[in-house]
Amino acid sequence: MIPLSLDGKVAIVTGGSQGLGEATIRKLHAAGSRVVINYFPDSEGINETKANLLARELGDKARVAAADVRIPEQVKTMFADTVQAWGGVDIVVNNAAVLRDKTIRKMSDSDWQTVIDTNLTGVFHVCRAAAETLRVDGRIVSLASIAASVGFFGQSNYAAAKAGVEAMTRVLSRELAKKRITVNSVAPGVVLTEMGKSIPEEVRKGMLEQIPLDRFGEPEDIAHAILFLCSPMASYITGQTLHVNGGWYA
User: Fold this and answer.
1) Dihedral (C-alpha) 104, 108, 112, 114: value to the nearest 10 degrees?
2) Low-confidence residues in the chain, pLDDT < 50
3) How many domains does the chain have?
4) Over the stretch 225-237, which tens digit does the pLDDT of each residue have?
5) Which of 13, 146, 154, 249 has the smallest C-beta neighbourhood within 10 Å, fewest atoms?
6) Active-site hit among 39, 158, 236, 249
7) For the chain, percent helix, then strand, then coil, each to nearest 5?
8) Residue ranges making up the domain that contains 88
């Protein structure tokens, strides 16, 4: 048996209160890492409630952090608070993302900018803070998407942002290599999170026909890949995008 242990590590996962973020939090925690559950502070307090419930379930090796990744000052505070509480940061997972799907003729400036600000600029803010904070042998894993490769109808903003994440990953893998920090991205296919389930049923049927494994992904499928890239077993993998999509390629 090959052990996969993250004992003594500290991980921050953005958008960690639900979906892929929650699944990733659970896997990293199960492997022994202390985890920071980042959430977007929405006006209704829904994300805060979910994050606090998850933290209480996981116990004293979990804490919550409210931060809008679009706002660099809030990101810096999240990292500083984590260092003060737990002495450092070893793992960062960029998961926070939004959708504003429309054809380019119908897409407003706000639809475009909201997705770019969260899904690309937010990753930049988090990676910049991580570059200043992560300990030697640290890990950065960012969520890309099959959308960057396939080019789904009505997703020019989302696909552009995720393609940008892949490009940023390659650059940062070179910039942070001196500290033996690896930087990779994971590109999920269609995953049955709340976001995935929002796709109209007829569209999902067409998508399923493109997947050789004949099923959509589950959050745990993606979390397993992230866990591997965060582990010592992936210490010589950097600058890569790992596609986890059941064999669906354009």
Assistant:
1) -150
2) none
3) 1
4) 999 999 999 999 9
5) 249
6) 158
7) 50, 20, 35
8) 10-191+219-241
